[in-house]
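Quick one - inputs below.
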Amino acid sequence: MNEAVKTEAIPLVLPTKAEITPAMRAAAIVVVVGIVSGVIAMTASGYWLSNFTQAYCMTLGVLGCALLYGQLGLVSLCQWALVGVGGWISLRVYHSFHPPFLVTMLAGGAGASVIGMIWGLPALRMRGLYLALVTLMLAGAFQTLVIVTSFPVGGPGFLGQVGASGNDRIMMARPLLASSDTGYFLFVAGVTLVCIFLVEAHRRSKPGRAWALIRKHEHMAVAAGVKIVFYKAWAFALSGFLAGIAGALLAGLFGQLDASAFPPTNSIVIFIGTLLGGYEVWLGAFLGGILTRFIPALLIDLNVNTNVGFMIFGVALLFALRDPLGLGGQLTILAERLYQKLQAQRAS
Amino acid sequence: MNLLPFVASGIGLGAVYALSSVGLVILYRASGTLNFAFGAFGGVSAFLAWELTQDGLPAPVGWIVGVAVSTAIAYAYGRFFAPRLSHRDRVVRAVATLGLALVLLGAMALYWGVGVARRLVLPTDLNFVMLFGVRMSATRLVALGVALAMVCGVGLLLNRTRIGLGMRALASDRNISATIGVRVIEIDSFAWLVNGMFAGIAGILLANINRLDPGFLTFLVIPAIAAAILGRLSSLPGAFIGGMVAGMIEALLVAVPEVASLRSAGPYVAALIFLMIVGAGQGVGARE
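Output:
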């Protein structure tokens, strides 16, 4: 009897930490992106508004890069080239059919998604270093190709070029309801939010579980019935789609795209943004993407040579490699601990 | 069409690519690190050589200082930073060198500027030889001679010296080599030193054959990697031949007007096709 009393005295359920539900995570995404975007829209000058719009486009590139690295451990060094592919296709579609902006944007996303999947084909046979090499070569090859073909500007033929004077260039129109700089920035912020939810939905459903298993052990994944080729191709397609959307949004921001703006260096910077921000959480991609544009823009604003930016990114990469959580990961852990502390205090 | 003139003009570029891919493979075999900063090392060497020559110093002093500095940077990275990442996988170690490449690219662009039409002039530019009916500068033949001599020198180093034996041991199995007493960090650092020397010489030659530009020289590493892939990242003769083939492909594409402007992408496309058809095979770290 005494034994039974003693057993009952021991708590069977240890006190659990306050649970963070998917709904709370979703609310956090909306609140953080909403507040940051709102503050930027209300306070930023024209220069900073343009740069933050570009930063959000970078965020989409980083989101795709983080998806591949965080979920599958695949290093893609051609993400900025895929942004260029999306931009090229959306400009081509716009100048051919003049569809509404959303259709143009989705066409850019879909096109880059297909190209991204094709570029990812080598990953079906090899990964690790070889994939990084292949994607870097693709980034180099894209730069050569786009400098020769340039981006369509409304001229005749498939390439859509105009004469040397360039006076006949046609600018791509922005969405009707977001034609002002502030309106367009908020539109881009909205698209970024939707894309973050798209990736989160993937990570927390069947594809996410398949990717996790593939990353853990490919043979184990095959034994568990995961279709490796299908899910790897899916990841590349989704990553390409995000980059393509970013390309279309950039084309909408400037009305056209400059071929010299797509060197392999930018793809490397996107990968650095992925590591700096952290690839495990959505906040990492958001912050990493913003930083990749914010730092060069700040240097220009301070009249500092922009090449210093390369040096900053280079040093940042050397340090970021030692911290897999990144800025976003650290902040997420901090926020979760704070929330659990508050809940514990409330409960007591 | 007579393609021999194009083959002749591809000799210089092929030699630079061969030198670069051999330099990359030596380091990769010994330390498992693919050095993305190879082109940036070459850029530093070429710019220093140019700067010192502009300042009135004899050209050989410029070359020696340029190669010495690129070698010193490579050695310093290999000795002091690379060991901190030695426990990480190959892709992380390679990505870290991208950071070094960006730092050097930024420093070069900051100090020497970008978009300026410059070329490093070498004394051999004034001498010409007739090859396959084409009048070409002696520099291109010198580049081929230097590349051949350095590859032979490295072959002797690997096969006839104790440190070469250590490098071969590390290429075979790092853990077992360390267990039996091979001084891993010393040999890794030496491999970095050789890599920096190859990069310095390749950079000077490329700055002469093509142009002196920070971005262009930094991204010499991409065709060099393509050439090294043609040699499966493991074979030195394979890397040399891969480099010559990559240079020839670029030169021969000039003969096809439809794709002549895309010729610089030729080596990448060749390497990608090679990988898709042949695969990484048993190349070092192919499936890591």
